[in-house]
Amino acid sequence: MSGLTLTSVTKVFGSTTAVDRLDLSIGANEFVSILGPSGCGKTTLLRMLAGLEQPDSGEISIAGKVVNDLPPSRRDIAMVFQTYALYPHMTVAGNIEYPLRKRGLSKAARKEKLKQAAELLQLGELLLRKPRELSGGQQQRVALGRAMVRDPQIFLLDEPLSNLDAKLRAHMRAELIQLQRRIGRTMVYVTHDQLEAMTMSNRIAVIRNGRLQQFAPPQEVYDKPANEFVAGFIGTPPMNFIDGVLAADGSFKHGELRLDLGALQLTQGFQPAADGTPVRLGVRPESLCFDDDGQNARVTVIEPVGHELIVMFDYFGVELTARVAPNCGWSVDDEVRLRPVIDQLHIFDPDDGRRLNAD
Amino acid sequence: MHYIPRWLRRGLFNLFAWTVILLIVLPLVWMITTSIKPQSELFLIPPAFFPEEVTFEHYRRLLTETPFLTYLRNSVILAGGTTVLVIVVATLGAHSLVRFSYPGRETIAGAVLFTYLLPSVVLVIPLYFLMAALGLVNSLFSLVIAYTSFALPFALWLLRSFMSAIPPDLEAAAMVDGASRFRAFIDVILPQAAPGIISTALFTAILAWNEYLFALVLINSDASRPLTTGVMNMLVTSFNIEWSLLMAASVMMSVPLLVVFVFLQKYLTRGFGAGAVKG
After folding, report:
1. Are A246 and A328 part of one and the same domain?
2. A114 CB contacts (<8 Å, ≥6 apart)?
3. Interhelix angle B68-99/B57-65, nearest 10 degrees
4. How many domains, in total, are found in chain A?
5. Do A214 and A269 fall into the same domain?
6. What is the pLDDT of residue B274?
7. Across B4-17, average pLDDT
8. Which chain A residues are Cβ-neighbours of B172 within 8 angstroms?
9. Is the pLDDT of residue B275 over 60?
């Protein structure tokens, strides 16, 4: 068992609370992404797991043992840094062997492990080069190799792909997934890139302002976002929001717009008032359909992205974004009939942002 | 505007540059030639730029008949001791100022710099009384302390800027890889800061080697005089100033610094090229 548990962990820098009473329980051999916008505290969280920062309160345990007071060198973890942090004065081989040297492995044992890592990451010809002679992708692989050689229980990865170009990033993403499946270790992956989080993780922890918003498998985060922030953060293009009033009979009003949301199950404990309660309606760009049952909307912007069009509409004074097949034949200022698909809509509390759907 | 041909511009530039270089070099050349002229040629009018007869007599006398070698030994101990002490304290101190956050960190850094702003004349008298009270007057150790007190601020600030250019992730990586904080400092920070450490060491050594005022005030015995005051002492005490001997001493004083500088300059430029890998 080499899971990772955080209990009410808090870290304050001066007047900003980087991590705020965070609870998280990560299972053994799980791939978990910590996802959030820049400055949300995710890197601080990772550094606390590594032991590079001390939490101000709360408990961090690895494999059931509290490690708050253990220095980084005595937690069984490895970390890949966003900047790779390769030692510039050592060769590739020197870099990869460094953690083994620190653990007092014999020269023969180090050679063997180095060979294995070099094979796995295809670093064979690079072993005698210095880090500055390597490309970004190669440096990235060396950083992974240095983390892997000593076979730690837990890998911490801090935006390891963010310095690579788009093509290499897609390639390394696939390689990382394969690697994790092969060596079967717990990985905690910090990123602000929702695509990385969605494609690689078993579960995603969405963080905002140091607080955990949702911790669930990728599809669940997408289909049942815990709140408005998660709903708006995950998905490209982002979810549309329409402020309005929901009445007890299930009718939603926004200006001239009327929608019958009677088919939606609402969470227990939320009962719209007879004359209506303010809510915020969330509509994914793919939850809009275009047929004669819809109501008039005017095309305002068309952005071709190749396999589809991102089209913006003026719909009862609200700007809506939709994904449309490229052969639709529309142009700006065309009037089309547009209809939100009721059972795919999300309802949020406009005050605290929590999702009010029953599922 | 008149067009100046490229060859002329270059020619003028070279002429100017060489004039400046000659102006700087001339006293040095005069020092060297004087040191190898026989006494009889010293005051010739018109002066002979190149000696007619080359003699190393003055060097022989310098090394055998004067306390020059004692002074030299003292200077080497002084420069070496000061450099080692300053580098050890400044490297650790700069690392602390860059990496740790504690109350008053900036105040400490500023206060340290403030002592550097004071002219040494202001410090020398209080330091003398202090050393006298501690019974350290006339010892090389007192000079090492004194030199450290005014070389340290500059060294600290120089190294601080070198240290802050080292990515903090390197140290963090070493600690995650299994090193203690101190071990990470040795394994990762020191090699990265080496160019900075070498140039700081060079600066400190030159400062200690050339210092005059403190040596004059704090040292009164011939046994612990360094070269600067020692050679001046030779000049002041003789009734008949032996210029050739003095020039020979000056040449001998400059040689170690020149050797060190030529050797380390190569190291410096090589070191500066080896920056850390940036993402």
Report:
1. yes
2. A93, A96, A97, A100, A127, A149
3. 80
4. 2
5. no
6. 41
7. 90
8. 47, 50, 52, 72, 79, 81, 85
9. no
- CA distances to B22, B234, B257, B263 from B246, rounded to whole Å, are 23, 8, 18, 27
List CB contacts (< 8 A) between B169 and chain A. Answer: 81-83, 85
Query: Given A180, A213, A233, which residue is the final one in a domain?
Result: A233
CB atoms A88 and B275 under 8 Å? yes
Per-residue model confidence as pLDDT tens digits over B108-140: 888 887 877 778 788 888 888 988 999 888 889
How is domain B67-274 classified at the CATH fold level?
Answer: MetI-like fold (1.10.3720)
The enclosing H or E element of B23 equals helix B6-35
Find the angle CA(A94)-CA(A99)-CA(A103) to the nearest 5 degrees. Answer: 125
Where does a domain end: A197, A217, A233?
Answer: A233
- Cβ of A85 and B178 within 8 Å? no
A47 shares its domain with A192: yes
Read off the pLDDT band of B267 (50, 70, 90).
Answer: low
> In terms of domains, do A222 and A248 share one?
no
Which residue out of B99, B102, B177, B186 would a mutagenesis test of the A interface target, given it has the greatest number of A Cβ atoms within 10 Å? B177
Residue ranges of domains in chain B: 25-55, 67-274
Burial class (CB in 10 A: 0-12, 13-18, 19+), B122: exposed
Most confident of A265-274, A336-345, B121-130: A336-345
The ipTM (two decimal places) reads 0.84
* pLDDT value at B217 more than 70: yes
Check whether residue A265 and residue A292 sit in a common domain: yes
Question: DSSP letters along A187-223, please?
Answer: EEEEES-HHHHHHH-SEEEEEETTEEEEEE-HHHHHH
Q: Model confidence at B277, in pLDDT bands (50, 70, 90)?
A: very low
CA gap A291, B110 in Å, rounded:
72
Contacts of A51 in chain B (CB under 8 A): 175-176
List the domain range (segments joined by +) for residue A338.
Answer: 240-348
Determine the pLDDT at residue B239. Answer: 65
Report residue A320 as tokens: 């809506």
